[in-house]
Design brief:
This protein is an all-beta fold. It has no helices and four strands. It has strands at 12-16, 22-24, 48-50, 56-60. The chain has a two-stranded antiparallel sheet with strand order 1-4. The two termini are 20 Å apart. 28% of the residues are buried. It binds FE2/S2 (inorganic) cluster (FES). FE2/S2 (inorganic) cluster is lined by residues 10-11, 61-63, 65-66, 72-76.
Length: 80
């Protein structure tokens, strides 16, 4: 699967609420990182909708190259 453009080579920790649906920016163009702001329009990307089971702090990928979206999987460390 094609990946979006690198926004930042580091994850961001965010408090997420159980039962709420979040939309992770996959294209890398959003101004509301790590979430979608609609900037993918006209690109081949779609945001990834997700929920968390428990209200908790999660580290979401901002490099957009993770193999486990929306979560950081450490891939950003290997980017040039
Ligand atoms: S920020 Fe993308 S894998 Fe860590």
């Amino acid at each position: 699967m094609k990946k979006g453009e690198v926004y930042k080579k580091a994850p961001i920790g965010v408090e997420l609420e159980a039962g709420k649906t979040y939309y992770w920016c996959a294209c890398g163009k959003s101004s509301n990182q790590p979430f979608c702001d609609g900037s993918h329009k006209g690109t081949e990307f779609q945001p990834k909708a997700f929920e968390v089971k428990e209200t908790s702090k999660q580290y979401l990928c901002q490099c957009k190259q993770t193999n486990n979206p929306p979560y950081c999987d450490g891939t950003h460390r290997n980017l040039e």
